[in-house]
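notes to self, project folder thing:

trying the whole complex as one job this time. last attempt i did each chain seperately and stitching them together was a nightmare. three parts in total, labels are on each line so i dont mix them up again. if this works i'll redo the older ones the same way
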Amino acid sequence: MREALDQWLFVYAAVGVTLVGTLVLVASSLLAMRRAEKRREESRRK
Amino acid sequence: MNAKTDRGLKPKHQRLVLVIVALVALVGAGLLAAYALRNQASYFYVPADIAASPPAPGQAIRLGGMVENGSITTAADGVTVEFVVQDGVARVPVTYAGIVPALFVEGSGVVAEGSMGADGTFVADNLLAKHDENYMPRELEGMSTAELREELQESVAGAGE
Amino acid sequence: MHGFANPARFLRIAKWLTAPLLVSGLLLSFGAVAWGLTQVPPDRLMGDTVRILFVHVPAAWLGMGGWSAIAIASLMELVWRHPLAAIAARAAAVPGAAFTALCLITGSIWGRPTWGTWWVWDGRLTSMLVLLFLYFGYIALSSSLAREGQSSRIAAIFGLVGAINIPIINRSVVWWNSLHQPPSITMGESSIDPVFLWPLLIATLGFSLLFGGVVLTRMRAILADMQAEARLRRKALQAEDIVR
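result (full assembly):
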């Protein structure tokens, strides 16, 4: 008896995890940067 | 920082030597540990290891190697497979009842979890397929370089017509 | 080497470089993965699961590359006292950990249909998991040192000591029998067919550019935080002087 799994399911899962993970990483880094740079500008003005 | 002043130069070299000495000691310790782990950290035994020092029957071990070409036979019950694992030095017959992974084929790598039976047959409870380092599309399989070149020329000639 | 020591000069270059790196990285990596999903033929043995190669290998490369960057920056911090090195090391930790985790997850998803198991404790998989835990330790240590305003020298030593794991990961499939296959690409030789190799190289380049962009983004965030804090502290001191 040979195992027969749907290969595409695994492919989509792996690719999906990577793309979502990458986008979350980029977005969170950009947001953190924008927040920090805004805080710096505010400290300059005050 | 005052790295450019003369005062900063000497401690900088001191730190460099210190870090290099520490790194050398560290790499040495790491290599030593890896060397000591050489046998223990292996995930499986190859047939040559089994032949050199046969494990006690019933002792749980993993056996890895290549599935010998033409050795896979399926028993009458349709679930039990028998095959031979070899590593070019020794061969070990294996019997396994269960679902085999999709990549389990003759001439490919396999890792069997189980124990040696009294008759010198390895009784596996679990089979894992081991992939090799080659990645090749299906249609090119088994073609030699000369054949590939011929194929390429044909397709180029076909495109020119 | 101290050309970038001036934060204002570094910030000017970083500001100019961040967006191009992120955009080109996203385009190249996602494009190469899409290419791998649609244009590449199935592997002779693995079939369609070979497409996981295009996300798994770049993730593994960046997981190890991230720690190599931490180690190099730590060395520069300890020996040359380069003021930006500690910030660079701290900025590389989270993306490095993220890609190490992605490498482990995609590898596990790949292992199930090919090997027949989600996980085994062989040399390669175990040493990669150790790398992930080293990242967790490094992130906890360096962020707590930064929060308390202490020197990051202990984190730098940790970054250097942890680098011993990188050659172990790399050699694990050669030194020990492992379920993971030996390296396919060694010293300019490749046992990967060109139809797989090209999208793999482009995906790796794309994810690497993306990694660089994320590190710059995080360095800018850390620098901005430090500058804001320094300014607020200075103002507080001035205010005290005026009161006196």
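what i see at first glance: Chain B has two domains: 1-41, 47-130.
need to look closer tmrw
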